[in-house]
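User: Need the bound-state model for manganese (II) ion:
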Amino acid sequence: MNTITLPPFYYRDNFQQLLDRAGLLPAELQTERERQLTSMALLLSPQALALLVRLLTRKGNLFRSERLAWAELPDLIEPVAELVSAGWVRVITARAELNDLVGVDEWLALYNRDELLQAWGDQLVGITGVSRSKLKSWRREQLDEICKQALTAGQLQRCDLQTALWWQLVSDCSQWLETLLLLYFGNLQQSLTEFVLRDLGLARYEDLPLDASLCPFHSRTQLDAHRALFHLSPDDDWLKAADADALQLRWNALQDIRERVVDDEWLQRRWMRMVTRLARQAERLALPELALDWYQSCECHPARERRIRLLAIRDPWQALAECRAAWFNSYSEDEWQFLQGFVPRLGKQLGKLDRQRLQTSGVIDWYQAAALPAEQFLNLPTDWKQRWPRVEQAVLDLLAEQGRPGIYVENALIVSVFGLLYWPLLFAAVEGAFFHPFQYRPDDLYEPDFLTRRQLWLQEIEADLDSGVWIDRVQQRAIDKMGIQNPFVYWEFVAAGLEQGWFETVLKRIPLEHWRAMFEFIWQDPKAHRSGLPDLLILEPDGGYQLLEVKGPGDQLQANQKSWLAWFASQNIPAAVLYARPEPV
DNA sequence: ACCAACCACCCAGCC
DNA sequence: ACAAAGCTCG
DNA sequence: GGCTGGGTGGTTCGAGCTTTG
Ligand SMILES: [Mn+2]
Ligand SMILES: [Mn+2]
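Assistant: Bound-state model below.
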């Protein structure tokens, strides 16, 4: 039912946007070579630019000409000739050129197993002494390895596989594209597909007040640091597969760029988060010395928590000293919750070692236990697992039977209302906040001075809260902005609430002072405090309400949940943990 | 440490 | 922050 | 001859990736 059709050269139009943006920005953000490529691209004929973009947006920069064909480019001869004469593409015809210019791995990857066996099957059988069918079931890596050996030994010739011509994009093209993307988006997570998804209606963005400078970086150094950091960022798969050597190598590489990130708070935070992940993997590989060392250079959560846990084993007094430092200057609410639980355990351990030392002033007497959250208990039928997919759902139904109806809200309710209420502030025209149309949040949302830079908008919203119109505003905004990306709004949830009619009920059920307190807590750390909210909102028959965090068997309170519960307690907001256990038989 | 599964076919080895 | 289609591997 | 096990060659399938709009 997708009626939207993109123009035939949509990809070229989108790329043109990148080029235009690069042209607007200060020249020193591109290298001389990049500036040259940018201006050369602007001079290409429409057809040739289209072909260039098609090639650029594919993996690698080596292609088989016979595999390239697009409906909107019926003739490739002319455009490719233009690209060749302008120096973008090299057409490789002869074997000598191939050997000089193209790495074997890159070249082998152009062919599939069948093609390799068809061209070289007999020779390979001769070389390996393995039957053809056996060869066919070899792993691709293994097959490539044999081919490479035979090629270097001269037993096989690359041109045996020549079906047409090879086209090679000039090698610094991918670097250039990266720079263009960085200049446009300010990051390397977003790409040209943003345009397509938006134009197909699959992603909707607020109509943003773009900054006049449009510039995500203030210097080339900053841009390069950003790029380097991105390439060193360990993704989950890499991390899981990494061994000690891989980690050490990555650590060394990160050390090398460290001085390039120290000037930039944001880059530095990112650097520390990456190192923390590296150290966590070192822990899993039983390399505590490495982990301790690495954590020490990270001033962020959970680096210090992990460090304290490791120190508790090898040097518990040192661990306690770190706890003390963290207690008076914690990185986050989560870290503080960790200390709440951990310091007493550490104290018990140290008390056995040297009670006197522990009781010395300033060693542990700074610690004060916080009140524990209120608790409730509920028995589950023994077959609850068959009847409900989730324990929260089971509790919801059972409580409803007892005359306490409710809604499964988790983070969605309060955080969505927050996002809707503060919408004008979040998308306010503040210098440097927005520089491209695909941002779902202002660039500085997580900076400490975010709110102080938006006092005017804040005051207006405060006034709406005072006057009571905020309830209408939030609902109207939900309708007006439905589906538009916002870092706080869960649209399916909001849409369900409007449709089923309970959204307004809930807004009114929770008293304004409670809403205020919850919003305040989110503002304290808008990234971390978006999660950890209780599972259920119970609408008590007397007109009150209660927030319930459900804990089934084997589940325990997370740090972020404790943080929220502690805040609720301090603000007299009715919240509790409900422990659900199967009925004892 | 390693990995597709399935089927039909051939052939040698064995009773 | 999507879905269909094609290719490739195992 | 009939049965068996191992090797062979062909097909089909699911999962995952790339390309596309
Ligand atoms: Mn939950
Ligand atoms: Mn829960």
